[in-house]
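Figure 2 data, in text form.
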Amino acid sequence: MSETLWVLLAGVAAGALNALGGGGTFVALPALVAAGVTANASATVALVPGSVAGAWVYRRELGPVGAVSTRALTGVSLLGGGLGAGLLLGLPAASFEAAVPWLLAFATVLLACGRRVLDGLSRGSGGPVVLGPRAVLAAQFALAVYGGYFGGAVGIMMLALWSVGLGLDAAAGNPMRIAQVAAVYLSATALFLVASDALDTPLILGALLTGAVAGGFGGAHLARRLPARLLRGIVLTTAVTMTVLYFVRG
């Protein structure tokens, strides 16, 4: 299989995963690394159209998150994503390479155990821990910075925050998750296109981008039909596999 075709297929899988529940970065990063491309900036640039395609499918289902308006949440996501991208560009490449396995491991643990732990805390307090608008925006900003810097499982982290902090059902929050991930990627991409070498490999980038658009559009439609347990299983399996591979590679 040619390198370009492999990256195209990885883009389809990454776009679909991002639309289904998150974790597309776990597929895109290894594919770009194998193709000899500067992975994180290029992955963010290529996955933006797929995230936007998924958000477009859900455009009529977007709504406030608790007491926080869509406009306020999106503004915070844009600011945080741009800051995270700036941190990535400002830090030495070796720093990012050393951090990747640990970031992947953290995201994987969150996928596997985070909801259970947070649910236990909610039960211990006698009900859901309801966050105020300022707390939600502050937490969203922190997640957006992480998303602009690395991006892995940031959508899952958003759903966990909204579910436990606001009692928002994961299925109901999925449209907003897709929209906010798209906002984070958009602001990060604006900086990466100007200040990184993401455009130095247009064929590989174009293949990943094309696949991500197809996967994001199709995945958003599929997300309405698959059981929630199956979606979580797909994302967690991908996360565990990529974490192990990165630690072995390191």
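Caption note: The chain is about 80% helix and 0% strand.
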